[in-house]
Amino acid sequence: MDVEGATWPPAESASSGVKAVPIADYGFLSDGETTALVSPGGSVDWMCLPRLDSASVFGAALGRHAGSFRIAPSDVSVPAARRYLPGTMVLETSWGTATGWIIVRDVLVIGPWRHEQEFSHTHRRTPTDYDAEHILLRTIRCVSGEVQTVMECEPVMDYGRKFVRWNYTDHVYHQATATAEGSDIELTLTTDMRIGLEGGQATARTMLRQGDVRYVALSWGSKAPPLDYADAYSRLVWTAHHWQHWLARGRFPDHPWRSYLQRSALTLKGLTYAPTGAIAAAATTSLPETLGGERNYDYRYTWIRDATFALWGMYSLGFDWEAVDFFSFIADLAESGDELQIMYGIGGERDLAEYTLDHLPGYANSRPIRIGNAASTQHQHDVWGALLDSVYLHSKAADHLDGRIWPILSKQVNAALKHWQEPDAGIWEVRGELQHFTSSKIMCWVAVDRGAKLASMIGQEAEAAQWELAAEEIKQDILSHGVDDRGVLTQSYGNSALDASLLLAPLVRFLPADHPVIRATVLAIADELTVDGLVLRYRVEQTDDGFTGEEGSFTICSFWLVSALSEIGEHTRARELCAKLLSLAGPLELYAEEIDPHTGHHLGNFPQAFTHLALINAVLHVISHEDGS
Ligand SMILES: OC[C@H]1O[C@H](O[C@H]2O[C@H](CO)[C@@H](O)[C@H](O)[C@H]2O)[C@H](O)[C@@H](O)[C@@H]1O
């Protein structure tokens, strides 16, 4: 962790006096298998190996003794500038010192597909042309003057519990390996700097002069690391081009807000676990929703809801291959015969039993740190609608429904029909008493409505007619029990609380956007469920969600409000809110789950798919109105 926070010196750890890095100041790296967070101070404070949901090897974001990997000038802790190389996931940090300037570039390396002689042990989807190389590469270039530069690599395996032992290899002073008892991970550090081994730390200190270049590669797989700068540089360039080519597949409007759309698309792709097609909800666990509070969860899993909504966002930008992979992931799971869970491990694991890590202090002393997620065994009745809607969207455009998917889908429609009258934990996964959540019932309507449309698309007319009738019955039930005296959709049957999940009603076309119930609901949420214009999920004092403490505004809900305001014709309000939300992005245009409406600080796991997918939908809504379409 940085000793000085860059733009936000917030919560101070009582035990250490060290300031936490503002969550949204982290840079996000991904190779489609694992992810990393890099602080403004040049420290990799979060990386889990070999998968993004494995135990961390760098865990300083949750406790400064849990491992970090820093490259920076010896005497400066705040960089001059940071950016992604345009259209890529290559992070560039520029450092100005009293004596000169260096530029550090960080990347998780992707190279050409390399399983030619033997099958991959992890990939289940159709092979692509590219593959993660399992290398975290950091390059340094001195562009003027001279700069004393330090590298400190201190991994601690198993979330900071297993200290490593370093050993040199035959590449004298230029390569060393790190292992820890009880851990399968072997790390190899290769560099053209001279490494010293000090306990659990591999370090280098060197004076770089104008024109000097250096690299450091940390690798953990079978692919050989670069042995010289030229090789390192060409791998960085290959990876940069890979991201740019991927991005070029999308359709982005020629608009000042384009970069937010592009960063969101890259982030969603970066949260995708390429071997299976699963999309993780976020790259982290237990970044807190309230500083010092207990609302800390593990998001490194794939929720059907989050992932299918993400595909919705990607689809609007022209990306559809990711959907094919994700549907195949779902098909693998569904064909095993068990009921569809609301979430899975990114490798398809069903058991995500939750436990806490009590040895870590947590981000800004926010405890507990949770691994696993107890919500995985919940009944959340929106899940069938989320899946059906996503498949419908993709099938409608292609005018084709994959034969493998149909039996799975019809099973989900029947599940919605069987359970829609029962209470559930809802889209917000409350851990209090089950309720008749109105938004869950709306999503059951979505499941049956889309099921009917898909059935008709493939000529199953009898089923289509039956489901159309059933969908209408659900709709009438909602309108009879889930609307208050003001004509506003309520959080649950018989309870007049507001809930931002009802902003989905116009977005999923439950009722036409000019219907009085939709207009009243959107305006009530805009006026009564906001703090400084930012939307809360619900009022914590009105909702038994099973936790204590406040939470910030939920950014997905604020972006949903932008889309919903657009839908009901409140274009000026929609645009103003959208502009405000974009102005609250992190310096690298990334978002966590929540924003504290009083301070603008980002809270919760990071970067979060939910926020980025809703951003895409909101921005496209606003831009399409500007275009007059
Ligand atoms: O509010 C309590 C719940 O918070 C988390 O769930 C939230 O994040 C999920 C992943 O993005 C999202 O699908 C869900 O709609 C959100 O409410 C947490 O994962 C739950 O365990 C927790 O009960």
Automatic annotation (TrEMBL):
<dbReference type="InterPro" id="IPR008928">
    <property type="entry name" value="6-hairpin_glycosidase_sf"/>
</dbReference>
<dbReference type="Pfam" id="PF00723">
    <property type="entry name" value="Glyco_hydro_15"/>
</dbReference>
<dbReference type="Pfam" id="PF19291">
    <property type="entry name" value="TREH_N"/>
</dbReference>
<feature type="domain" description="Trehalase-like N-terminal">
    <location>
        <begin position="16"/>
        <end position="97"/>
    </location>
</feature>
<keyword id="KW-0378">Hydrolase</keyword>
<dbReference type="InterPro" id="IPR012341">
    <property type="entry name" value="6hp_glycosidase-like_sf"/>
</dbReference>
<protein>
    <submittedName>
        <fullName>Glycoside hydrolase family 15 protein</fullName>
    </submittedName>
</protein>
<feature type="domain" description="GH15-like">
    <location>
        <begin position="258"/>
        <end position="619"/>
    </location>
</feature>
<dbReference type="InterPro" id="IPR011613">
    <property type="entry name" value="GH15-like"/>
</dbReference>
<dbReference type="GO" id="GO:0016787">
    <property type="term" value="F:hydrolase activity"/>
</dbReference>
<dbReference type="InterPro" id="IPR045582">
    <property type="entry name" value="Trehalase-like_N"/>
</dbReference>
